[in-house]
Prior knowledge:
The chain is mainly alpha-helical. It has helices spanning 4-7, 12-40, 42-45, 49-54. It has a domain at 13-41.
Amino acid sequence: MEDSSLASSVDVDKGFAIAFVVLLFLFLIVMIFRCAKLVKNPYEATSTTAESSLS
């Protein structure tokens, strides 16, 4: 009665876990590049809108 092809299909929980890990790694890579840019040149990386509102 049970369809064996349905049981061998991709597990939904496993798919969510893989998608979560992939998004987590992408976020980590973006944060590494942003932090490296900030360490390299902190004055250029900061927002200029805060400086214009002070003057």
